[in-house]
Amino acid sequence: MRSLDDIAEEYDFLEGDERYRLLIELGRDLPPMPDAFRTDATLVRGCSASVWVYPTEQDGQLNFLADSNAAITKGIVALVIAAVQDQAPDKVAQMDIAAALSPFDLKNQLSSNRTQGVPNMIALVKEHAARIAAG
């Protein structure tokens, strides 16, 4: 997975539809999420599309699988995952993920329908991280 800084640099050079295409590409690049991980516990509430986020931990670092049934929303969740992937659970639990995503200015770039679930995606990621950090 590309770093959030890498993605932000490319995003900054793009405009309009090109930014949508980048988000769709990011979503397509997410590793496949097995159907068994699409459960009520991994479902992000409050999104207009269905979004699932499943955490795993390996060698003290979080790895997330994520999926959505909407291409642009899947790209947005890919941005959230890029901000936290391969970091320690306690660090993710304390991280200001919204600030990390601020260079993308999602609220002004995308419709409110597409971004309304972002705070809930962030909350679920942080909740998973805090639970894993607590053991």
Which structural traits does this protein have?
single chain, 2 strands, 135 residues, two-stranded antiparallel ribbon, mainly alpha, 54% helix
Overview of the molecule:
It is a single chain. The chain has 135 residues and is mainly alpha-helical. It has 8 helices and 2 strands. The chain has helices at residues 4-13, 16-28, 71-84, 89-94, 97-101, 106-109, 112-115, 118-134; strands at 51-58, 61-68.
Low-confidence stretches: none
Output the helix-strand order.
HHEEHHHHHH
Using the CA coordinates, give the radius of gyration: 14 Å
Write down the oligomeric state. Answer: single chain
Task: State the share of residues found in helices, binned by percent.
Answer: 40-55%
Overall body shape: globular
List the helices and strands and how they pair.
Layout: H1 4-13, H2 16-28, E1 51-58, E2 61-68, H3 71-84, H4 89-94, H5 97-101, H6 106-109, H7 112-115, H8 118-134
Antiparallel strand pairs: 1-2
Helix pairs in contact: 2-3, 3-8
